[in-house]
Each structure stands twice: as structure tokens, then as C-alpha cells.
Amino acid sequence: MPGTPAWDYLEKLAADAAEVAASLLRAETGAQRQITAKSSRTDLVTDMDLACEAAIVDFLTAHRPDDGVMGEEGSGRDGTSGVRWIIDPIDGTVNFVHGHVGFGVSVAAETDGQVVAGAVIDPMLDETFTAHRGGGARCNGSPITVRPDGDPALALVATGFSYAHERRPRQAEVLGELLPLIGDIRRVGGAAVDLCTVACGRVDAFFEVGLNPWDYAAGALIAEEAGAVVQDLKGGPPSSDFVFAASPGVADTLLKLLREAEADQI
User: Across-strand partners of 36?
Assistant: First the structure.
């Protein structure tokens, strides 16, 4: 679109916006929070989710007032610039509430329906993951890549579970089919950070069902730019139906196993 800013500029702005929230979280991790539930008793939102989203939106509005916004906690507006920001102020709120690692701040920029830049910050590890489309991925400014190869039978695979308790028994069935055929499973935190662990080679793959765009927008781009295979279970782009990211060395085998397990039928 004519007038759309350079994607590397949007990457930097995403990182700067995410840092505004991350700095708040570093100061508040472990403190007593005002906590309420959303879709279920385990789907939590805190006063810090709301404060961080407001801070991110204020920052982006000050720099780009004509952009659109979609935020997990309800921030939303149409824009006229062709850019929309997709925001998750705390991805992994349950971890944040417990002072556990694995939560992060996710900010992505979308143009013409395509995510073109993004940043995920892990405040506990002081790591900032960023990427723009076609420009590779970075952690704290240094290039990162997925593991270049791997044995699917030894693969370390990250995943997440639904907040809807009635869906969890089916997710357990999928894991029961998968676990004997891979190295191990990791369930650490929010999808945004999990996708970044694929990007930097700490795990071989990640999959999850039922995510929202703000959960995976930035992380999926970062994983893709780090060399991961990123898609849904049917070969299309990642979506709320299914998000999969893996190093190329294990991707085909894991996709086959997940399809056989009907992992998207949850």
C-alpha cells in the first residue's frame, strides 16, 4: 500500500511498544494483583493486563495515530493508514500471577491482512525477540535460527492447553499418542514465548489449538523468519484452528503424527 512504512521501522516500533509494557511487568512480577476470570476460572485477567495494554496503545497512538489496533483486553479501533497493531499485553497471565517464567508481551504489525513485523519480550529473561518479513529474526539484536536438523524421535515439543476444561481430555489423548514417538513435551507458558523458543532452537517444535491472533501473530512471524515451518495442520497459514511451528528437520514427521492423532479435532 502506498505510504505504508518500512517493515524494519515497524519492527523497531513493535519492540519499543512491547518494552513499555515489559518495564511495568518487571517491576510488578510477584506483587499482589487484582484478578478476575474471563472465559473460565483458569482464564485470568489482571489489573496489569489492562494497564499494559493501555500503555502500549498510548505509545503507538503517540507515534502513529492513524493506525488500527486490536488488543486482547478490548482495545480496538479502525485505522486509515493500512497498518493494524495486534497486541497481547501479557501472554501467559497465569504464569505472571504466579511469578513463573514463560509469560511475555507480544506486539505485531499487520498490513493488508499479513503480519509484517513483530516483537515478543520475555521480561523474566530480559530477552527481546523481533523480526520483520524477509529480514530474519533476532534476540536482543543478534540473529537467531531454528535448530538446523533433528531427529523427530528425540524432538522436544512445546504445547499449550485450552482454558475450556471440557477440551482438555481430548488434548491429553493427543499427547498420549504423540509422547511415545518423540523426545518429550514441554508446557511452559504463553504461545508467544513458546514460538520464540522454536525460533532460537530451545525446542524443536510447538503446536496448539484455539489460539487467538494476538497469541501468535508476532511469535509465528519470528519463528518463520528464524527458519521454522509455520502453518496450520492442513498446510495453510497459522490460525485459531491450529498453530504449528517446527524446525525443518522434524516438521514433516511431526505434522504426520499430529494429523494421524487428529490434533486439530479438539
Answer: 45
Quickly state the pLDDT bin for 100 (edges 50, 70, 90): confident
Which burial class, exposed, middle or buried, applies to 28 when counting CB atoms under 10 A from its CB (0-12, 13-18, 19+)? middle
Measure the CA dihedral 124/122/244/77, to 10°: 130
pLDDT at 40 over 60: no
37, 14 contact by CB (below 8 A) = no
- Phi/psi at 228 (5° precision): -75, 150
Using DSSP's 3-state secondary structure scheme, residue 101 falls into coil
pLDDT higher at 115 or 96: 115
Q: What is the pLDDT of residue 167?
A: 85
Query: Do residues 87 and 70 lie in contact, with contact meaning Cβ atoms separated by under 8 Å?
Result: yes
At 117, list the grid cell: 513485523
3-state secondary structure of 141: coil
